[in-house]
Amino acid sequence: MSDLTHLVRDRGVVICCGSGGVGKTTTAAVLALQGARLGRNACVVTIDPAKRLANALGLDRLSDTPSEIDPSRWRTAHSAPGGRLSALMLDTKSTFDNLVVRNAESPEQARRILENTFYRNVSGALGGTQEYMAMEKLHELHDAGGFDLIVVDTPPTRHALDFLDAPRRLTRLLDNRIFRLLMMPTRAYLRVASLAVQTFLRTVSRVVGSEVVEDVIAFFRAFEGMEEGFRARATAVEELLADPDTAFVLVTSPRRDAVEEATYFANRLTDHHQRVEALIVNRVHPPFGDESPDGLRARARELTVHPGADPGAAHRLAVLYENLADFREIAVRERRHLEGLRDRIGPGSVTFVPYLAHDVYDFDALSEVGRALFPN
Amino acid sequence: MREMEVAQFCSTSHVVIVAGKGGVGKTTVTATLAVAAARAGLRVLVVEVEGKSGLPAMFGAPPLAYDEAELEPGVRARFLTPDAALVEYLESHGMRRISRRLVATGALDVVATAVPGMKDILVLGKVKSLSEARDADLIVVDAPAAGHAITFLLSARGLLDAVRVGPIRKQAADVVALLSDPRRCQVMLVTVPEETPVSEAIDTAFAVEDRAGVALGPIVVNGCYQPLPAGVVASPEAIARDADAIGRFVPPREAADLAAAAAFRAERHAIQTEQVERLARRLPLPQIHLPYVFTPDIGRADLDVLADALERGIEAL
Predict the structure, then answer these.
(1) B234 near B266, Cβ under 8 Å?
(2) Burial status of residue A359 (CB atoms within 10 A of its CB: 0-12, 13-18, 19 or more)
């Protein structure tokens, strides 16, 4: 049984990370699908899936709650009984709104925050917020969703490990020294001390205008009293990420830039004391034998130089040797890149998914990827 | 004269923003355009705006810094960060002290959150001033990945609504003026001939023109497989026949590999053709096709091959 099978059979949370355009969403869907086929109650949290994949998963809009996919669409004769498969397309804004409402001390406080322009900017899928909400949703589903396997896709940013720091994003904002001071003037005894802050604010106002500064101050004041709740929540999310029941799966393609980024992720995860438990490499070209590209090119040249009795036939063969040499070249380089990555991720398993002739947007295609990820 | 066509094309607008979904080869196309323009005698400045870039490696150069570096004669490059752009902007506007404090206290991040798109504006504002300095004949900007490319281009308009006074507003207004003037700026979209990237390119193209008001140049279709020449059949039997005809022996396993690689290529080519045609039907933009380069690591020699194809594409426009 493959390591990936162990992951989707035994773990509670699987997080798929990697750079954009490497098939992370598809991979997440396939892992959840396999979990369901092994009898688990699985849910995949997707972020911005391609339209046709979203349709296949029955996701026609952003949502706050997972919807279950009809078993007749994914169940096979070999599926274990009892499995369920749900999917959700993350709605960053409404997830954030709910978080505020849940943590607010009164409906009035929630309203003041939800209406604040600064808050609307923060919650409107700005850099880092999507990651933050993905982790928030994960925590919520883990706590109360009743699922025994949650697979999370991560947003396709260049800073794709933002989700590790994401839970702290808001609390860090609230902790900012300048803006903590900003909240002080409400307390009369600190008025004097805030003179320097006032000067600073005036200059900030000169750069971006005073309305912006007023919005920010209103936001911080509205948040007063809620920081603790958010801090506790951030800690809880971090604990869930560090839990042994959570597994990180690194998804990449064999292209140099993707491999470099994957290597960077692997190192960052190690810094966070997380381990990459599996590496999935999508879009790997077939090896097409084991001849050296140079040897094949030499044969093509030789056929061109000595075409023999039938130049047409020799030319056709030369073309085919050149073509095979091209593909062998790719195969050799791809494998060389991946060797380096394999060394760096340590004991985790490595699975190759071949380059498919078509895009993945229905259960047949997801099953095809599944056969590559879960042979036997 | 191909160089003249390229020079003429590159002088259509002074700034070319290369945009597309992640993984389609934006950076490769950026480098290719830079090489083609430099070969036509233009002084090119490449601007990278996002994270690590593979661009210098393609030229065999070390990673980029905020300050300009020459990648090769005629091609310079630099990496713009919002923080450095802000400090530079404020300093040149007599706000030296505040700029350092904004960055040092982390207040810039709060302000940037308060003003969505401010970081993009700072970067685009810097591009604008580089363009005005006329220190290069062509500026090529390697834009952030697709979804972000739209935000990147829309940020200036959005910011005009959010900020009513101050130097940042002025900067945003200048950026809008730059982006909406086709003589000064155009967007070159990049895609690959596969289903999802083509669909996303179509959506991005309409969004760029309708919402961001930026002129679109030709769309670059990257990674196109060339078809095998007519008459080359991808079957072990045909290979054996041809080998017989010239008195050679091709071992069956090798014949199988030759056939499999040829069949793979034919299959990819057929899929790509279908997607290229769909793109042409759905998006009324001229296309420039760049060939698939058989290597996962584009190097300087590959850039010349790609620049040749880009030149042919420009000539055919």
Answers:
(1) yes
(2) buried
Q: What angle do CA B54, B60, B62 make, to 5 degrees?
A: 70
* Strands, E assignment, B155-258: 185-191, 215-216, 219-224
Domain covering B2-228+283-315 in this structure, CATH number: 3.40.50.300
Tell me, which fold does domain A3-285+355-373 have in CATH?
Rossmann fold (3.40.50)
Question: Which DSSP symbol is given to B136?
Answer: S
The pLDDT value recorded for residue A215 is 79
Q: What's the average model confidence in pLDDT over A158-183?
A: 67
Residue of B nearest to A205 (CA): B166
Which residues share a beta bridge with A247?
A: A14
Say how far apart CA B263 and CA B257 lie, in whole Å: 10
Contact predicate B81/B113, CB 8 Å: no
Burial class (CB in 10 A: 0-12, 13-18, 19+), B122: buried
Q: What's the rounded Cα separation, in Å, for the pair B33 and A18?
A: 28
* Facing residue for A320 by CB, picked from B114, B194, B239: B239
Give the model confidence (pLDDT) of B215-235 as tens digits: 999 999 999 998 999 889 889
Residues 55-84 of B with CB under 8 A from A: none
Task: Please name the helix (run of DSSP H) or strand (run of DSSP E) that holds residue A139, with its range, or none.
Answer: helix A129-144
